[in-house]
Amino acid sequence: MHEHHDHNHDHSHDELKEAVERLKTSGIRITPQRHAVLEFLIHAQTHPTADDIYKALEGKFPNMSVATVYNNLRVFREIGLVKELTYGDASSRFDYNTSKHYHVICESCGKIVDFHYPSLDEVEALAETVTGFDVSHHRMEIYGTCPDCKTKH
Ligand SMILES: [Zn+2]
Ligand SMILES: [Zn+2]
Question: Is 109 labeled as ligand-binding?
Answer without folding.
Answer: yes
